[in-house]
């Protein structure tokens, strides 16, 4: 009996995992949505602090039927002092806002691996956000 229950639990867990991996799946978890919705704002703030141009978001692919469209966005970040342009692509999402936020999530990771150190400042009276240092 316990073996059957364990198998059923595994099936449920596998279904949850496959839903999360589905590019059209949008989590109803408010914390996950809040984190993703702030990725674009965080990237704008990061570029402003570094005195780079604003990131440019572009829908580079639309696929699927009219009632089940998936959008893929890319974001361009122009690093001024090195004449470098970072191009990050997001995963296909069911709406444009989610697709743009998904693309924005990858940019800080890429910048970090390009040698930029992104340090989150502790909140004080007037300062919040990121400091950006070149290693």
Automatic annotation (TrEMBL):
Identify the keywords attached in UniProt to this record, alphabetized.
Answer: RNA-binding
A molecular function annotated in GO for this UniProt entry is:
RNA binding
Domain DRBM: residue ranges: 38-113
Q: Where is the composition biased (Basic and acidic residues)?
A: 11-22
Kindly indicate whether the keyword Cytoplasm belongs to this entry: no
* Annotated segments matching region Disordered: 1-40
For bias kind Acidic residues, which ranges apply?
A: 1-10
Task: Output this protein's name.
Answer: Ribonuclease 3-like protein 1
């Amino acid at each position: 009996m316990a073996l059957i229950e364990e198998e059923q639990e595994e099936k449920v867990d596998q279904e949850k995992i496959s839903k999360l991996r589905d590019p059209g799946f949008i989590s109803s978890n408010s914390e996950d949505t809040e984190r993703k919705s702030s990725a674009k704002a965080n990237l704008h703030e990061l570029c402003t602090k570094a005195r780079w141009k604003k990131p440019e978001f572009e829908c580079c692919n639309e696929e699927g039927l009219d009632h089940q469209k998936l959008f893929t966005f890319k974001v361009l970040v122009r690093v001024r002092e090195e004449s470098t342009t970072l191009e990050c692509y997001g995963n296909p999402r069911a709406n444009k806002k989610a697709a743009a936020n998904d693309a924005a999530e990858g940019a800080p990771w890429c910048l970090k691996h390009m040698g930029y150190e992104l340090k989150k400042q502790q909140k004080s009276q007037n300062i919040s956000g990121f400091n950006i240092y070149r290693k």
